Amino acid sequence: xxxxIASKPRPKLPYxxxxxxxxxxxxxxxxxxxxxxxxxxxxxxxxxxxFFKDETHSLFSLCERLTQYITEAFHHYQVxxxxxxxxxxxxxxxxxxTDALEGVSRVLPLLAAWTVNSxxxxxxGLNQQIYHLPSMIKQSFIHGTDPLHKGxxxxxxxxxxxxxxxxDLALTLWxxxxxxxxxxxxxxxxxxxxxxxxxxxxxxVDNNWHFFPLTVQFVIKALTGKDTIAHWRYERLKExxxxxxxxxxxxxxxxxxxxxxxxxxxxxxxAQIDPQFDHDFITQSLNNFNQHYLYFITPxxxxxxxxSACYRLAVSAPLLAGVDLQCPFVKVxxxxxxxxxxxxxxxxxxxxxxxxxxxxxxxxxxRLVDNYSGPASSFWSLRAVIIALYCxxxxxxxxxxxxxxxxxxxxxxxxxxxxxASIIGVKxxxxxxxxxxxxxxxxxxxxxxxxxxxxxVQKNHRNCNWTIKTP
Length: 471
Known about the structure:
Layout: H1 20-36, H2 45-53, H3 59-77, E1 78-79, E2 84-85, H4 96-105, H5 108-118, E3 122-124, E4 130-132, H6 133-144, H7 161-175, H8 186-196, H9 211-224, H10 231-239, E5 241-243, E6 246-247, H11 258-273, H12 279-293, H13 317-324, H14 332-347, E7 352-353, E8 356-357, H15 383-395, E9 412-416, E10 421-426, E11 431-436, H16 440-443, H17 446-449, H18 456-463
Antiparallel strand pairs: 1-2, 3-4, 5-6, 7-8, 9-10, 10-11
Helix pairs in contact: 2-14, 4-7, 5-7, 5-15, 7-9, 9-11, 11-13, 12-13, 13-14, 13-15
């Protein structure tokens, strides 16, 4: 049975209908990018792929090597005191400066999680350089929230991608609070809060985006005691819940892996920031989701469907979250197997290039790049690693023996009634198929569902982002 969810008309988003002012901004920001961007940092690309192929390396070693790889490249690409980082790749639709903010906001949570896990302020890079992670995070916030600094993150507007990035930035501040926030002066703290509080007055798209201002507001309350939480946003998110652990991404959205790396990732962090907040719903819905979702994971990837293929390294995020929240359907050994195998499978086949996850499943694939995705958007792929580092000691992740995944034990076939999907697994081929019986099949034809090769001109036109592309 399809659950009807009250919907609202889709708003007119500025970057989907650019005017002369937006084109002028794009032109200016592209000129700045050409002046400040660095060369592609591919020094360790082959080495990290080989490292993840080697089965003798422990899961901890893999996470450490990945953090070293990401941190070293981030230091290379950063500009203006770690407030922005210009990575190479296909641009998104909301200006290259916003792309450069993503290069910071989506990397800093990893640095914060590593600091908390290692209980050290320094990290030795693959180049043998010492990186002071709390200092890098601190500089980013001091400069990014200073209206007089060149790296200022700016005034937020309605439907602004920076609202999304504010969520990851706030999470960074909360995770690293003992290393960063507690060391700041009262003036700098207020400067940071002033920038974050802009989200309280911005309109957003009616889907998973409700999590972004909510996360910021939860962090503000945790750090300052000031309660501006818009509880109606959380209630709206729960209206998207259809059962069996699954959410629609908006009233008219389809079902995809945003349940894993979007909805449950965000719910997990709300539960960490405020453990008393709607505990029963969060744990019960996550447990129900993981009961079936574990069957999606294979040692050789996932049955991919939906948007944002470049986030594929994060597919195990809800499994790790479920173990930490003591949801019984998934054991720590199963979550470990899912996490480690997904990292090994994709990274060993080239999913990391130039210091970042590629815009594709393996290498860069223009057919899989969504119009909202920029060069650093794929750092959402780190979300499973961030959870793993944050909770590893509590769940005994590094020491626990891996347990086989369902596809490694038996054939299976079952239904997920709430999303009208059939899940079929064949042990002999290690293949899992997910067949949906509504939405995609009703609204798309075989022609509209195919992957088409896009030229650079086609993608730039679709993105309304007149960028000068260079090899």
